[in-house]
Amino acid sequence: MFRDLMSDIDDTVFDVLGDDATVQGKPVSGMFYAPWLQSALGKLNTSIREPHLVVLDADAVGVGKAAVVQVTGQGDYTVVSVEPDGTGRTTLVLRPV
Predict the structure, then answer these.
(1) How far apart are CA 35 and CA 71, in angstroms?
(2) Is 58 helix (H, G, I), strand (E, B) or coil?
(3) Which domain holds residue 43?
(4) Run of H or E including 62
(5) What is the per-residue burial (b if ≥16 Cβ within 10 Å, else e) of 3-34?
(6) pLDDT (tens digit, 0 to 9) for every residue of the chain, 97 residues total?
């Protein structure tokens, strides 16, 4: 029962707050995030960008490295890593095309 309730909550949150995207041509709703991280290597500061799209596990089935992801209004990407988190969500780590 709890699992069903959480699944309903996830569906609602992704429908209302999610970003529209396509993964391998399939429309999905996910949470897109493109952080800028400042890493310090010695005295050299670097800018590393690791954008990612969090989707429901059902939308990540069959997605692997090099899959094409298009996030509406954000651009085109390829998947560099697929990271399920065990909570029903999967993070697709992306690289801009």
Answers:
(1) 15
(2) helix
(3) 2-96
(4) none
(5) eeeeeeebeeebeeebbebebeeeebbbbbee
(6) 888 888 888 888 888 999 999 999 999 999 999 875 455 555 555 555 689 999 999 999 999 999 999 999 999 999 999 999 998 899 999 999 9
Nearest C-alpha neighbor of 97 from the set 79, 73, 72: 79
Task: Give this prediction's pTM.
Answer: 0.82
Burial 49-84 (b: 16+ CB within 10 A, else e): eebbbbbbeebbeebeeebebbbeebeebebeeeee
CATH number at residue 42: 2.40.10
Tokens of 43: 């005295």
Find where tokens 């094409």 sit: 68
Structure tokens at 88: 């029903």
